[in-house]
Amino acid sequence: MEYKLSPSILSADFCNLEEGIRQTEENGAVYLHFDVMDGVFVPSISFGMPVLASIKPAVKQVIDTHLMITEPIRYVEAFAEAGADILTVHYEACKDIRATLDKIKACGMKTGLAISPETPVEVLKEFLGEVDMFLVMTVHPGFGGQKLISETLDKVRTLRTMLNERGLETDIQVDGGIYAFNVKEALDAGANVIVAGSAVFKGNAGENTRELMEILKNYE
Ligand SMILES: O=C(CO)[C@H](O)[C@H](O)COP(=O)(O)O
Ligand SMILES: [Fe+2]
C-alpha cells in the first residue's frame, strides 16, 4: 500500500501561499489538498476555481480537491478546467451520486467519495470498486483545526475490511485533526492518504511535512 500526505492549504498563510506549498512539495508531499466550501453544505466559505487555476501551473503535486458544496455536479467541468486531478464529492451533498461520479470520470479526473462523521460507512457499500478514493471525514466538515473524532476511525476499519474482502486496494483518505502524534492511529485503522492542514501549515511547513513523511515512509 502506498502512503501519501495531502497537506491542506486551508490552514496556510495566503499571503505566502506559494512558499508554503513549495515547502510541502520539496519535502515529499505528492498531493495537495484543496478545500472548497460554499457556505451552504458547510457554514464557512473558502476559495474556488480562480485560486486553483493560479496554483496549478506552479506545482507538480496531485491536486486533491475536496468539494464541500451542495450539488457539486454543477461545478465538475469548472474544476476540471481549473486543474483538479482528483475531485471528491460528499455523499450527503449529491442528489445523484452515480451521475456526479460519471461526470467526474468523463472530465478526465479521478473520483473521490466522502462521508461526514454522522453518515454510516455502509452507504459506501454500493460504490466499492467504482471510485478511486474514499474520504472518511474525521471531523465535521467546514473548519480546520478541529479535534479528531476517534469513532470515525472505526468506519475506516470497517471500510478497509469491506475493500479487502473484495480484493480492492482503493485509497482511503482521512481528513481533519490529524497530527504527528495521532497519524499512526489512522494508518492502523486502514487509511493510506492523510490530509493534514494545521499539522503542516501552523509553524514551519517544511519541517512539519518532513516529520509526517518520516512516519508514513517508515510505516508498515
Ligand atoms: O476538509 C477540511 C475541513 O472541512 C480540512 O481538509 C481539514 O479540516 C484539514 O484541517 P486540519 O488538519 O487542520 O483539521
Ligand atoms: Fe478537506
UniProtKB/TrEMBL annotation:
InterPro entries named in the record = Aldolase_TIM (IPR013785), Ribul_P_3_epim (IPR026019), Ribul_P_3_epim-like (IPR000056), RibuloseP-bd_barrel (IPR011060)
EC number(s) stated in the UniProt entry for this protein: 5.1.3.1
One biological-process term from Gene Ontology? pentose-phosphate shunt
For this UniProt record, the keywords arranged alphabetically read as follows: Carbohydrate metabolism, Cobalt, Isomerase, Manganese, Metal-binding, Zinc
Stored Pfam families: Ribul_P_3_epim
Task: Tell me a Gene Ontology molecular-function term this record carries.
Answer: D-ribulose-phosphate 3-epimerase activity
Q: Name one GO cellular component term.
A: cytoplasm
Cofactors per UniProt?
a divalent metal cation; Co(2+); Mn(2+); Zn(2+)
Role noted for this protein? Catalyzes the reversible epimerization of D-ribulose 5-phosphate to D-xylulose 5-phosphate.
Family per similarity comment:
Belongs to the ribulose-phosphate 3-epimerase family.
Protein name, as recorded: Ribulose-phosphate 3-epimerase
Species of the source = Coprococcus comes
Question: What are the leading ranks of the lineage?
Answer: Bacteria, Bacillati, Bacillota, Clostridia, Lachnospirales
Record gene name: rpe
